[in-house]
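The freezer alarm interrupted the setup, so I double-checked each line after restarting. Inputs confirmed:
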Amino acid sequence: MDLIQAVKLYIVKMTEDCGPGMKVLLMDKTTTSIVSAVFSQSEILQREVYLFEQLTSTSSTDNMYHMKCITFLRPTRENVSLLCKELRNPRYGYYYIYFSNIISKTDIKTIAESDIQEVVREIQEYYADYLAVAPHLFSFNISSCGQCLSWDPLQLTRCTQGIISVLLSLKKCPLIRFQASSKMSKQLAEKVKEIFSKEENLFNLKQGDIQPQLLILDRREDPVSPLLMPWSYQAMVHELLTINNNQVDLSHIEDIKPDLQKLLLCAEQDDLYKQNMYKNFGEIGEIMKSLIDDFKSKAKDHQKLDTISDMKAFVENYPQFKKMSGTVAKHVVIMEQLSNFITKKNLLEVSELQQQIACDIQSSQHTQKIRDLIEKNIPEEEASKLVMLYAIKSISKDSNRELTSLIQLLKSKKVPEHWIELVYDVMKYQSKVILDNENTLKNAKQITKRFYKDLKGVDNIFTQHVPLLKELVEDMIKSRLKEEQYPFLSDINQPTKKTQDIIVFVIGGVTYEESMSVYNLNTLNPHVRIILGGSTVHNSSSFLNEVKLATFGVIKSRTGSRKL
Amino acid sequence: MRDLYDCLVSNMTEFAEENIVLEGFLCPICKVDFGLDLKLFLHFQEAHGEDQDLVKSFKELFGKAKEKILNNDIVKKEERRYVWEPQEIGEVKSHIQHFKNCRNKWVEHFVMETNKTVIRLEKLLCNLPQDPNKRKAHEKTIVQWLDGTDVKRCPDCTKSFNITRRQHHCRLCGSIVCHECSCFLPLSKAYETINETIQNPMDFASQSLPSFRLCIHCGQVLENREQIKYRDQKPPMCDYYDKIMECKNKIENDLLIKFNQVYNLLKEGELSYLFEANKIRSDIVKLIETIDALSNRILKMENNSNSSKTTSKNIKLAMIHYVRSTVLAIPALPSHQEIEEIAKRKREALDARLRNGQDLCMDKNNLSVKNKQNRTSKNGAILKLEDGWSPVTNANVNSDNPMVEQMNIIKNYIKQAKEAHRFDEVASLERNLQELNEEYFKMQNNSDNTSDY
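Predicted 3D structure, all chains:
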């Protein structure tokens, strides 16, 4: 169930299929990022792949018949026609074609009829049609799923294909469950089911005793989590610096060394990162400090090379030493940036209040505290996010009045109009319609939970909020997930026995904080395997962008989105 | 004991505040005076031991709970991470059969068309007149030209013909196209296509129309044919690359394996392999140097295109990586002294082991040997050399290793032979033992080696 392994195995197989010899990898934009998410350049060079080309940039006409061409493409119409063009005037010796998803027979025929020089040696489907961000996390890099709170048909297809490829690469044919309150998740579930029945041969897989489960959720159910400031390393980097295809772009920082402008954060190659990506900021700080001390002492040792054996030891350790110095330097720069942001944006105070709002602690004081912080001139985005959180969480009748006054305050602080628009957009986006009777039931549950929480005591005021996703998966592990709210997509009533393999997909994206909770659940429950996926991996700004696009065209009305 | 005493004292003070004052070694629970500290201690352990355990276990429980609540799972997170069993490659689906079926039909059609085109070209070139007008007539007799009166638009680009966009005929299929949709085939190339050298090169110097006008389609057909001809050509870079791969293969599949074997033998203290190890090592280094030089040569080669430049750069990069990882993987050889030391230690250990085995045999065979001794001492003086002599094999020389067993047997024989004053036999037996010893060493080493892989 390791996604990174799954993609890697496919690509290794591709390079082995065509035997020894110089190879070129011909890809499209998406597959390029799929490959680069799991393979480093040096790793792929060792597999005799020496040239990487994009199918679209076929302007160069130089022929390299001595090279074998591994073609790895998504099965889109555009790619098929570009490939036909390529095959009519082949630039490379032989072609080994792999599609990342199911391709139609007619497309195969079209390609075959372009191959007049008979250069194609292999044409297969290898289902690596997703970005493997972590062994338990996949993403399709879809920045926006649709408009008007419904699917963009193109993205619906992409998500369906992506989920299908995840399932095929892991050899799983799951029961499908979806969030009953979300139209979008039902549509996606049905689409996936449709392909199951259409491609019966493919999904005729050997299953264990316990059938895996696929749960499709909608981000609209929990818009709170992406708005909160995360404090685990990976999530923080994404929130404050943005991780894009495992890369962090620092080129905007003044007088930064050129080799530190684009940093690669890849758990597969960077052990330091792998060990610490889920640790919180305080822990990382300590680790970095001890590392630097250790490093300094080592560097000192290296400076005095008196004897020959010293030299020998130095030379033997040098590559390791150099590698380590590189990684340490990289993380020091990142940590520096993060702590700059924390002080600049007053994030400690902001985050504490965010957590209090999200967890309904001391709710009576929320408005006053928000006011105080806004008066302190925190950055506009943080101020607006606080108001958004308040708008999502507050349900009492006079909250409406409070909200209006808070928005007035934002306006008086000259917060740009689009931020204020976003406050309304977020309210439109959230799907939870809180009904009175449901409320009491839920409250009772909440109260018991709170009680236990108080008993336990709070270990960290910045990470009190538990994402809804974690609660759902926990319920699922115990087979206690409510069938009324998360029904199975099938006519036969499924007996909810034990659960073993769980695949969760969130329409509208996941966060690294949620990825961490899945990671922890995997660690704590060795008998289950949980995989999380999202249309993308969000930070708060990319999430708000999606909210803006998703609510585009929805009629402006506060009462429409909730009952007052 | 100390705690108990403290407890006692506190008890006493407590009681002192109450009406009765009890003194001495009192049990804090049942308040009985025991007079001696040891007695009290024993009593406490006997009578209240269980209670104590209960309290203790309670305390532990609380302690654990406390720990759990306070630390939550932050502490444990660090050590544990989930591990999933290795998986096999996911589903795959091959379309090559369907693809080939589709392609075969198409390729047949294409081959036919190519042949037709080439045959026509051959006919055109046969007895081609030099005069333009005559030539046109010749061309028309070979290929039927399409009547242009009804053709209003170019069939390829669908643009209408007019004064500026004139009609042109393809010389090979006779169809009508516009200028943009046609191409020219130079005569020299045409002759090349039909595998004929130009008969009178002088004739063509004065040629006014040295080429044929073709439609794009026929041009493509001929172009493809040309391409297929050149497909098998390889740039010089390939030779170098093949050589690099050859070196790499030799290192990986031959030298490194050998080196590891020899290296393990050295580790076992076999000094005689030091020379060989050095030789293999230098062979590897030489090959690595060759790889480096070859990849440099590839890098320095003239490349006119961007892609080949990137390719050679990447080859160089890959080789640097490879060289670095191979060189680092080769361990440094132990020095002369180190090996000798290992050998010495090894010998000592083995000797000790053999001695033990021998002692065991000796003890068990004491009786029979004694009997023999008696016999030999009785008639030792009158022993005749011509007499046949054979040692007695003892069944009690068992060992788990047949080699060791054999050696033990021989040692036994030697002893017997010595007692029988058969010194020539002793010598030959001792030689045997020596050989066995050596064999045993080798076997031991080999088994160590194999277990390493």
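Quick read of the result. Chain B touches chain A through 62 residues (CB under 8 Å).
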